[in-house]
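Just curious: can you write whichever protein you like plus the matching structure tokens?

***
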Amino acid sequence: MQAVTNTDLIEFNHWTLRIRPAAASPARLLVLLHGWTGDENSMWVFTRALPEHYWMMAPRAPHRAHPGGYSWRVRNVLAQDRPSFEMLRPAAQALIRLVDEYAASVEVDARQFDLMGFSQGAAMVNVVGMLYPDRVRKMGVLAGFAPQGLETLAVKRPLVGKNIFVAHGTQDQMVPIEQARASISLLEQAGAQITYCEDEVGHKLSANCLRALESYLKD
């Protein structure tokens, strides 16, 4: 896969990570979260034009998915049902520990880091951002949704002062566009300002929205 060149596959503290060290300084950490049945290789298609100062880390989610790949929540019989906030909370907590331990090992400042996810990974971005708003600077929510139960955090307005990028396809059959619009409403309720890109595509990111994402992450 062309988008995965110039990266390293490593094992770190029981996690499998694909890493691209920064080519410019000061380095800023960008964490990439794949969707259901994805893995540490899935997100690199979105990174080809991102700034060289990004130190990128793509972790493999901790749970096996069916029929293959990995998931951010424990597998159950209804594997295709939307995971709730409580289902994703353990992975969000583990992710913060991973960020702290990995960043310390490579001496990258991760007191605030940027976070981007696709589908179930985008739901994880919403969870991590609301649980740890002081840790996350920018959030990219791609073809995602707001897990049920996140309303309990949104009412506390943890995202005041944050600008969040959301992209979705109007033809998405996996995560219908109505779920994206509902998640925007919830993020706004939590205090965030939204940069939104909607295009006539399915469960993927359009070229137009990819350019908008790159622009959002430039500064």
Q: What stands out?
A: The first strand starts at residue 8 and ends at 12.
